[in-house]
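User: My instructor asked us to take a sequence, write out its structure as tokens, and then describe one feature of it. I'm not sure where to start. Here is the sequence I was given:
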Amino acid sequence: MKSPAHGLTILITAGPTEEAIDPVRFISNRSTGVMGFSIAQLAKKLGFKVILISGPTNLTVPKGIDFFSVENARQMRLQVLKNYSKADVVIMAAAVADYRPFYPTVSKIKKGKPVINLKLARNPDILEELGKNKKDKILVGFALETENLYKNALDKLKKKKLDIIVANELSKKSNVFGKNKTSVLIIDNKGKKRYLCEVDKKIVAAEILKRVGEIAKQRKVLQCL
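Assistant: Let's start with the prediction itself. The structure tokens for your sequence are:
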């Protein structure tokens, strides 16, 4: 019996983005890319053709996948859109910066004034753009929240036309960055939800791909009717 992954291409984004302030400094976040890379590695084992697009990380790229390295949000958007038509499944696990410096300087900003102002510009919302052009693709998003985890995640799932959202909460008790374990709430567009508490990110990857496989199987059956 063929796997639900048979013949399917999955596009995965991972890691942070770095938005330049000057040639030395940048705005970024604490994402390590472990979650996205774990999904990519398992997806390859399950039989997906894998495209992985990642911001800067120190992780080893899994063998046998198509890999693209990017630095900032605009580069990630271009690479995602370039590969989007090839994908049946898209999992946006990257922690893409919402804002970037409006005027990055060409030379290093020297120490001088005690206070300087940094003007920020809004980065493109890649996930929202994909949702508007979703068609029959399976679209998975991530949400990091500091409050109202379920409500905010559900709102994002509906607004961005996702099939699945994976949400985790950042608090003093639960720091999701730089660890192999995490706690997540997984919700699909049918209202089915599951909470995984302090589990290895490989287990989260397996649960996500299990849900993706179920959706892919259902859609293939429907297409045959």
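For the description part of your assignment, you could build on this observation: The chain has a mean pLDDT of 91. Try explaining in your own words what that tells you about the chain.
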